[in-house]
Amino acid sequence: MLYLVYSNIQNWEDGWQARTHEWLTSPERARLDQFGSSARRCQFLAARLLLRQSLANIFSCEPIDIELDPMAPVCAYHVTGRRLGFVSISHSGPWIAVAIGSHPIGVDCERTGGKRKWRKICRQYFAQEEAEWLLRLPREIAETKFLQSWTVKEALAKSAGLALGTILGEAKLINGMAHWPAQFSQYRAWCTQDFEGLQLSLVSKCKAPAFRPHGHYIPMPCNPLDAAPIPLVPLSE
């Protein structure tokens, strides 16, 4: 089991925040109250809604019966104590992405464009071989390839439970293929093609090389029948 679901909260119907708040546990509500920014509160609620609704659709249960860690959940549980699966959350602006799987997973999303100093990041933190490859690319595709590499590293760090800084120079992505140390030999990576200015990457620890995840874009979490499948490109075999 491996699912990637993402959505844009700007397209959601009115009233979703109130409904999501009803589903939160007491620790989650306490965490929500700690955010001073309304935008950050919105992202927190949206991620919990998309994740809970996706889990409810997969496991045929009620969203309110799903328990998540209030900080950075790595597993989801039913109120009976049964573990439903491993989970991961990411957000970038109005975009929310969640992943659900039978094995440790990580997801990351980043909007393209903006004023990030990606060349400086490459030179300072990436392995020399990877940085040189990125810096040689034509300008029109270079930043997209950088974001692909960055989101894969973020997703790998989440999946492996490591700090991002420990793998930036170790887990290389060159010409669309992952070149990782032996400790990550059982991890598999996928990414989406640039979709409406968003780069998405997914990493899971799974032993079967031929395993393929299910990816979907969903306009509104409570209407799963509107979900549209999205292709996920493998970056490791």
Task: Describe this structure in a few short sentences.
The chain is of the alpha+beta class and 237 residues long. It has helices at 16-23, 26-33, 38-59, 118-125, 128-136, 139-160; strands spanning 2-8, 66-68, 75-78, 83-92, 95-101, 105-111, 172-174, 177-179, 187-191, 198-205, 214-217, 228-229, 233-234.
Tell me the helix content. Answer: 25-40%
Uncertain segments are none
Distance between the termini: 18 Å
CATH superfamily: 4'-phosphopantetheinyl transferase domain
* CATH topology group: Ribosomal Protein L22, Chain A
Roughly what fraction of the amino acids lie in strands?
25-35%
User: Helical segment tally?
Assistant: 6
Gyration radius, rounded: 18 Å
- Order of H and E elements: EHHHEEEEEHHHEEEEEEE
Estimate the mean pLDDT confidence: 92
Number of strands: 13
Number of domains: 1
Could you characterize the architecture of this molecule?
This protein is α+β, with helices and mostly antiparallel strands and 237 residues long. The chain has one domain: Ribosomal Protein L22, Chain A. The protein is 32% helix and 27% strand. It contains six helices and 13 strands. It has helices spanning 16-23, 26-33, 38-59, 118-125, 128-136, 139-160; strands spanning 2-8, 66-68, 75-78, 83-92, 95-101, 105-111, 172-174, 177-179, 187-191, 198-205, 214-217, 228-229, 233-234. The strands form three sheets. The protein has a seven-stranded mixed beta sheet with strand order 2-3-4-5-1-11-12, covered by helices on one side. It has a four-stranded antiparallel beta sheet with strand order 6-10-9-13. The protein has a two-stranded antiparallel ribbon with strand order 7-8. Strand 7 and strand 8 (177-179) form a beta hairpin. It starts with a strand and ends with a strand. The model has no long low-confidence stretch (mean pLDDT 92).
